[in-house]
Automatic annotation (TrEMBL):
It comes from Parasporobacterium paucivorans DSM 15970. Residues 43-85 are annotated as: Disordered. GO terms for cellular component: ribonucleoprotein complex; ribosome. SUPFAM superfamilies: Ribosomal protein L4 (SSF52166). Part of the 50S ribosomal subunit. It holds the Pfam family Ribosomal_L4. Belongs to the universal ribosomal protein uL4 family. GO terms for biological process: translation. GO terms for molecular function: rRNA binding; structural constituent of ribosome. Keywords: Ribonucleoprotein, Ribosomal protein, RNA-binding, rRNA-binding. It comes from the Bacteria. Forms part of the polypeptide exit tunnel. One of the primary rRNA binding proteins, this protein initially binds near the 5'-end of the 23S rRNA. It is important during the early stages of 50S assembly. It makes multiple contacts with different domains of the 23S rRNA in the assembled 50S subunit and ribosome. This is Large ribosomal subunit protein uL4. The gene is rplD. InterPro entries: Ribosomal_uL4 (IPR002136), Ribosomal_uL4-like (IPR013005), Ribosomal_uL4_dom_sf (IPR023574).
């Protein structure tokens, strides 16, 4: 098992913790990590974009002029794409962009992402993350103590004070152990996590 240091909110090391190799020490599967990111981004798309093709645009049923003898190019409808007010060529239509991964692939991708952060020394464990009130300034101080500017803050419990304190800091995102995902782990570079959350993740994914 690999060991990482445990810090308090003042940035002082207060101990060490052993990480479960089955979760934080797996072989990194870059392909599945990529698939997980692509899947998440695709699934976030609404797929509601729509425009009208020439068959959807109202009007244009009458031939604008006779076929021959006018000097104009032949035209069959004023709703063809080359006309103002005409339809759109290959117009986008509502569609489902969903890309699905099975449960085993999702687990491997998540464990690979977590392992990559541990290997890069971007995995910071806090003994306890508690605020007495909603204090954004205090949260920024804690991040400064840990020498971190951009991080994914993983909590074991839905702590309203911590979540609301971080809400107005653009470089910090909070997540619970059951909402962490590969995209956020890679995007926010450094993971700041409390000891209880580490235990929960190991229990669920080991």
């Amino acid at each position: 098992m690999s060991k990482v240091s445990v810090y308090n909110m003042e940035g002082t090391q207060v101990g060490e913790i052993e990480l479960n190799e089955a979760v934080f020490g797996v072989k990194v599967n870059e392909h599945l990590v990529h698939e997980a990111v692509v899947s998440q981004l695709a699934n976030n798309r609404q797929g509601t974009q729509s425009a009208k093709t020439r068959s959807d645009v109202r009007g244009g049923g009458r031939k604008p002029w006779k076929q021959k003898g006018t000097g104009h190019a032949r035209q069959g409808s004023t709703r063809a794409p080359q006309w103002k007010g005409g339809g759109v060529v290959f117009a986008p239509k509502p569609r489902d962009y969903t890309i699905r991964l099975n449960k085993k692939e999702k687990r491997i991708a998540l464990k690979s992402a977590l392992t990559s952060r541990v290997a890069a020394n971007k995995f910071i464990v806090i003994d306890e993350f508690k605020f007495e009130g909603i204090k954004t300034k205090r949260l920024v101080e804690v991040m400064d103590n840990l020498k971190i500017s951009k991080a994914l803050l993983v909590l074991n419990e839905n702590d309203k004070n911590v979540i609301l304190s971080a809400r107005n800091v653009p470089q910090i995102k909070t997540a619970l152990t059951n909402t962490i995902n590969v995209y956020d782990i890679l995007k926010y570079d450094t993971i700041v996590i409390d000891k209880a959350a580490v235990a929960t993740i190991e229990e669920v994914y080991a």
